[in-house]
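re the bet — no i am not wrong, look at it urself. input seq straight from the record:
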Amino acid sequence: MSNDAFTPRPPHKFSFGLWTVGNPGRDPFGEPVRRRTSAVQLAGLLGEVGAWGVNLHDSDLVPIDASAAERDRIVREFKRACHDNGLVVPMATTNLFTDSAFKDGAFTSNDPAVRALSIQKAMAAMDLGAELGAKIFVLWGGREGTETDGCRRPDVAIQRLREAVNYLCEYSLDNGYDYRFALEAKPNEPRATSTWPPPAPTWGLSPPWNIPTWSG
């Protein structure tokens, strides 16, 4: 590795998401233009360029339909690759937007079965992140929102959102994960009107949360 002052090195604490460096170049108007690269290979590439950390969604690493044995093998191999390349995992999150089950939302879906699935998937992602050493857990409500006022009442959606965050905070506490929750607030990506509003209103929702000091 170069000794040039502008060459990234682990002490600089650069970290990259698997979903960024592993992006196959697909967009809404075209199919992928690059071959997919495994998480183990990406860990090697990040180690070569002097990265400090790697962040991930659960589904970036473990397919949503993986068996328990497949999940354990994938995680074991990735942990070894991170160790061999001097990488840490500072942050983990859950993908509650790609699978078609979440087309009407995840935590705020009108379908109680989807809301239950979302909580279970988020808890599994928290287990994964904790196993990899993450101390920050990000929540992005990519599908939490609406394109029409007739979809759901805003107050009902906010209540469902609060209940979900409270539940996950308690889950972190019960398991000794010591997570800090980061709320990724965007007004209209990809929904026309998002239940995760811009940062200031999102923070304003925090007083009813059971553990508001854990999130930001």
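see?? Strands lie at 15-17, 53-57, 91-93, 136-140, 145-146, 180-184, 193-194. told u. also The radius of gyration is 18 Å. so pay up
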